Amino acid sequence: MTRTAPAQAASAHRMWPLYAAGFTTAFGAHGVAANLGGFSEDAVTSLLVLGGLLALYDGAEVILKPVFGTLADRIGAKPVLLGGLVAFAAASALYVIADSPGWLWAARLGQGAGASAFSPSASALVARLNPAAKRGRAFGSYGFYKSIGYTLGPLLGGVLVWAGGLRLLFLVTAGCGAAVAVWAALAVPAVAPLPKSRQTVADLVRRLADRSFLAPTGALAAATAALSVGVGFLPVSGAAAGLGTIATGAAVSVLAATAAVVQPRAGRALDAGRLTTRTGLTAGLLITAAGLGCATLPGLLGVLTAAALIGVGTGLITPLGFAALAASTPEERMGQTMGSAELGRELGDAGGPLLVAGFATVTTLTYGYMALAILIAVGPLLALATRHRATRI
Predict the structure, then answer these.
(1) Separation between Cα atoms, residue 207 and residue 107, nearest integer Å
(2) CB count, 10 Å around CB of 22?
(3) DSSP state of 197
(4) Residue 220 in contact with residue 321, Cβ under 8 Å?
(5) pLDDT tens per residue, range 297-320
(6) Tens-digit pLDDT profile for residues 252-270
């Protein structure tokens, strides 16, 4: 039986607050991070303090996302979603009210903790509220709005800091968190936690070590690593080639915009049966690796080609990876899986730039790009070789 038009509209209506939550976590992470050292009276002027504030937010996510994902399975994803959004809004408002350097640390820690709660909960709800046949499109749309947050965050954040300093930026993030919390409370249905059998630590380790979890999570971590490297290092390559800030900024925008456009299309192709997760993830990883290889080419051509290919590759991987995780996870463990997968993405987010920077310090940035490209490509190439050998036998 097919859904009626009103039923489809109702289903879409309850998803919009989740997409808004995805935008909020991306905007809050990158919008603030990109402008903490901006040109305003309350900006951070010490590189040591700036690094500490950036690490504080990411560290909170690394530690707390699996915890809140498990909590979502225990008490329901909606309460954790709402609690995270409220905590994010309250932490943002804290700096607006206090306006002192010490409270900035508390506010950024609170933002990270809040995002650690509502981000995996939103992912779990996207999976729980959609049948398996519709999850590709749902995760594609969720990733699209997250990409919009990553794209617009630094730009809008910069405008806000220019207009009113960090306090105005934190005021807007507080408003976003509060507005999405109210919207989600009204529109997102409560999804009751499902009964589940007792799980030991050994059971958890066994499940997370299974290929059905490791393969898509590894792909998601690789995509996030490449995305972070593209955003952080392509402007460096452009500047070294004599390109101005407008050209390098446009290249980063190409990366983010391409990823945003590809994600919903990849999700729809998966749902329609035109694409499988194995084929899509393999193609996405190889395209991403090719993009990093193109980053070694000189001039504007290399920067733009790299940005476009990394955008296409990560745009393929993200919705397919989450859809694969949702398909292989028991409904009652969805939050735990999404929280653990988000941890993998955070490690990729930090590890990719560290790997490239390490090689660049010892040799050149070109070798850093190539090192990450090889690391990303080796898995799918081995899988293709193994599959080809098995076919011949």
Answers:
(1) 35
(2) 25
(3) -
(4) yes
(5) 988 889 899 999 999 999 999 999
(6) 778 888 988 999 999 999 9
